[in-house]
Description:
Number of helices: 9
Oligomer: single chain
Shape: globular
Order of helices and strands: EEEHEHEHEHHHEHEHH
Structural class: alpha/beta
Amino acid sequence: MRHFTIHHDGVTIPVSRGGRGRLLVLGPGLNSTQADLHELAEPLRRDHDVVTFDLRGHGLASAAARYSFEAFLSDLVAVMAELERLEPGAAPVLVGYSLGADLAVHFASEHPGTVAGLVLIDGANPVPEPFITEALLPEFRAMWDDMATQQEAVRGTARQVLLNAQEMLDLNVEIDVVRSGIIERYRTIDRPIRMIMSNSMAGDSGEGHGPRLNQNWRAGIERLLREQPHIAVSWIEADHGLVFTHAREIAQIIRSTQGAAAQAGPSGTP
């Protein structure tokens, strides 16, 4: 394993790299760190040169004066630029979980030809309805308050998230807006895309708002596939924490997908 840091936009981004094979960049979600993705990264390193990193305010990265979708996207851009500097022309497979998936789609659309393909894990979903509605706002606010309290147990470790409950809530509202227009981004990407999605993103209790949120999640993918039928989708019986509960299964899907892609041309076709 190799570790280095990237300094940009007033923040320090820690990066880890290890494994052998095709270069693969694994981006975390809004409430996760590269340490949290260890169980997914390790099996991928058997046949990939895996790069993981922390977004600003996460893990071992420094705190920032601002947290926004564009700021997090700039962190990914900085990581990709450093990899390009180290190995010019080595277009990596870009994998993102949750928010990381949205960042991956935006990066690929803004930097054509710089990635070999995308793997999007339970994110970047053009859902027809926003998740943060007025009716659900108190529930989400309470959830983020609880998460902020739980963060006290890991403060100062590689698993910490420095954002407070209000910042998390604001970012989720912003992500809703980003996803309302993300289908336009997909139209500009000519690389192979594999999506790995949870069947029960909001849980499987069948009570409360869960069923509606889960239907909205599936409807977003159905909408995307009607327009972009070449996108491959794998569904996993899990909630949004699938990257932690089903890491080995997800790794196997990624490895098999990239193994097939390696036998094809750069656009994913023989």
